[in-house]
Amino acid sequence: MPTSIIDSTAKLGTGVSLGEFCCIGKNVRIGNDCAIGHRVVIHDDTVIGNGVRLDDGCVIGKLPMQAVISAVTKEQDLPPCSIADSCMIGANVVIYRGAEIGQKVLIADLSTVRENVTIGNSTIVGRGVAIENFCKIGNYVKLETNVYITAYSEIGDRVFVAPCVATSNDNYVGRTEERFKHFKGVVAKKGARIGVNATILPGKVIHEDALIAAGAVVTRDAPARKVVARNPGRVFRDVPAEQLLENQGWKD
Question: Which helix (H) or strand (E) is 237 found in, with range?
Answer without folding.
Answer: strand 234-238
